[in-house]
């Protein structure tokens, strides 16, 4: 699969010396969904703004569909749709005029059938004659998506698309994104909702202090960095981990009713069989055994954790 977005050694340094992007190199394949995760100030919005031509890079290069964003900026930007984090719409315009005007800005010929299709897919068709000021926050965010799709982009940026919307609308947004992918649109998503990335992304990128820490397929990432935990539930509580079990990395639950054992799923031997035998030899009686996998949120927190020093 060919790359629709190629970023090479991209840097952005502001006046005063602050380096918002540090040697970012990244390729995005056509038709995939990439979730870009990072704490506040990590450089997510700066990266998107640079690709979209809102911010000028200090050095490096970006190509969209093979078009350089500087020397072939018109061709590059025609391929890009951007849903910004902030809602900035003309309050007295109608939904229809807002979306149709956005299509015209890109020099596209009038296509009412296309706009009707977009509005219907975003559940905005019944609101087409409504003024923006009459819409809820969630509906306004849908209008931003409709605007971004109006000129038929091949690459769509969603900067915190579900910020400020309730859980139901957020899940609707996930379905919209999945439908867009099915239509062949490539999507780059920034989000603070880790479950959002876990639900819809193909690959996960993690950025911190302007540097890309990793970009990896979601499932591969969770296997490679994820830990599993075995919870050994006891029929009677204990006060301390028995000395006979000191060779295992065990944590005693607060109520004393369970021993928690962390292990790496990549290892040939997990040590579980030996642990269960050792528990029985220590005279403890099991009532149940459960396992759980690290969530993407836990992996993310570990990756972006600040150094203790």
Structure explained in plain terms:
By secondary structure, the protein is an alpha/beta fold. It folds into 2 domains: 221 residues, Rossmann fold (3-Layer(aba) Sandwich), CATH 3.40.50.300; 67 residues, 2-Layer Sandwich (Alpha-Beta Plaits), CATH 3.30.70. The chain is built from 10 helices and 14 strands. A hairpin with a 5-residue loop joins strand 1 and strand 2. Helix 3 runs parallel beside helix 5. The protein is elongated, with a radius of gyration of 25 Å. Keywords: ATP-binding, Nucleotide-binding, Transport. One of its GO terms (molecular function) is ATP hydrolysis activity.
CATH level 1 name of the largest domain:
Alpha Beta
Identify the strand order in the major beta sheet: 6-7-8-3-9-10
What is the CATH architecture annotation of the largest domain? Answer: 3-Layer(aba) Sandwich
> What is the total number of structural domains?
2
What layout of secondary structure does this protein have?
Layout: E1 3-13, E2 19-29, E3 33-37, H1 44-51, E4 59-64, E5 67-68, H2 73-78, E6 80-83, H3 95-105, H4 112-121, H5 137-149, E7 155-159, H6 167-182, E8 186-190, H7 194-200, E9 203-208, E10 211-217, H8 218-225, E11 228-234, E12 250-252, E13 258-263, H9 272-281, E14 286-293, H10 296-304
Parallel strand pairs: 3-8, 3-9, 6-7, 7-8
Antiparallel strand pairs: 1-2, 1-4, 4-5, 9-10, 11-13, 11-14, 12-13
Helix pairs in contact: 3-5
Pfam families: ABC_tran
Domain ABC transporter: 5-234
Protein name: ABC-2 type transport system ATP-binding protein
Which key features would you list for this structure?
Rossmann fold; alpha/beta; 309 residues; 4-stranded antiparallel β-sheet; 28% strand; Alpha-Beta Plaits; 2 domains; elongated
